[in-house]
Amino acid sequence: MLEFLRGRDVLVAGWGVSGRSLIEPLRDIGARPVVTDAGEKAMAEAAELGLDTATGAALLEPGALERFALVITSPGWRPESPVLVSAVAEGIPVWGDVEFAWWVDQARLYGPVRKWLVITGTNGKTTTTQMTHAILRAAGLPSVACGNIGLPILDALRRTPGPQILAVELSSFQLHWAPSVRPEAGVVLNVAEDHLDWHGGLDAYAAAKARALTGRVGVVGLDDAVAAALARKSKARRTVGFRIGVPADGELGVVDGKLLDRAFTKAAILAEVGDISPPGPAGVADALAAAALTRAIDVAPQFVKEGLAEHKVGPHRAAFVRELAGVGFVDDSKATNPHAARSSILAHPHVVWIAGGQLKGAHIDDLVEEVAERLVAAVVFGQDAPIIAAAMARHAPDVPVVELGSGDDAQMSGEPSTASLVAEIDGADAVMARAVRIAAGYAGRGDTVLLAPAAASLDMFADYTHRGRSFVAAVQALDERDIGSQQ
């Protein structure tokens, strides 16, 4: 299955976490890994480890790629990357690290073939993966959460003793480069505008997500129109759905505050809605998805209940930070697109919204229009703050908006009803501290100050976790005098 790699050179494109995880399996197969990366520091690190390296320019020289039996790309590399385009033109197969991990598992390089439970969707992937793993643990099944959640699949496969079941979070990038994966069960939670700049449009993005629906059981979120439509195109041998409502035959849903399975049995109560973390519709939907995946491999209802009760939301995912003078502060820095921000805002009746960053081609108007009545005020910052502020002016003209810039001076601008403040501050953490203070000033008893950026973080922060930590630190620095100071 992988014999064609023995004694051959394999190009590892990208020296990130996934790239590093490839080296030992390639050596175990008998292949010779060669690393390429656009970063000089990454290349130097690979070379220090005794690995052969090749620059992109050298690889684009005529005939330079002929030595390679395979190119394995990191998921972030776009299909139009010159090295990948040249490899395809020369007939050299291009795999993602997940595709390679699938074939390593099928080849039984590290023990018996595992059952893959694949989780994808625009939002809720990590929470669903963690819930799935919690249920598997409750059932006493040797398992691990891996993939886009942080632990590379290859590292999971190499563990001793090895897991029998993998709860695998996969991004659209990873699925794009993994056409052979056939999971025991796979779920598409939802599909909303995200990464459109990478995929070139919503149809291609949805098609990548649909690769989770190619195994024995496919699961789709029926409350999401695009995900529900994928059920008709599912290549899984059996496809079931879940909804936050009364389930039909062949579905999971909610009845009288209880999660109910009518897909894998006539009717089985799986959990109480009140036991789900995080609370709210998004958390319940994720719990239904995790229940569907584990019920698909015959995990008993009692273990679904135990696992979901034990699961607690991770940091920066609708995590409650503190209450101060009757105002709640919630960190949902992981809400990196409008669809995720929507779920977060709709979980609270009155919100002072902190948002901004890189929208990645996603549209914000529909979100603002839908949640306008819940918004007390908004504080926006980052690269696409002007786009969010403009949407607020169109759809929530009576809601105060504060727009933060990157220097020290502040001035008022825009229509009086928008109350847009352009504040120039140095440093991302300083911007966040100012945003939190201003947001607290607009908040009153019963309100929630919510970080739900609806955008990526890399224009200002190292990642969404840095953004979340910055928010938490700023919130902890507040005192009661900051509450309501703008009212």
In brief:
A 9-stranded mixed β-sheet has the order 7-8-6-9-10-11-12-13-14. The protein has an 8-stranded mixed β-sheet with strand order 15-16-22-17-18-19-21-20, with helices on both faces. A 5-stranded parallel β-sheet has the order 3-2-1-4-5.
Verbal overview:
- It is a single chain.
- Helix 6 crosses helix 12, helix 6 packs across helix 13 and helix 17 crosses helix 18.
- Helix 7 links the parallel strand 7 and strand 8.
- The N and C termini lie far apart (68 Å).
- The protein has a 9-stranded mixed sheet with strand order 7-8-6-9-10-11-12-13-14.
- The protein is built from 18 helices and 22 strands.
- The chain has 487 residues and is α/β, with parallel strands linked by helices.
- About 4% of the residues have low confidence.
- It is 34% helix and 21% strand.
- The chain is globular.
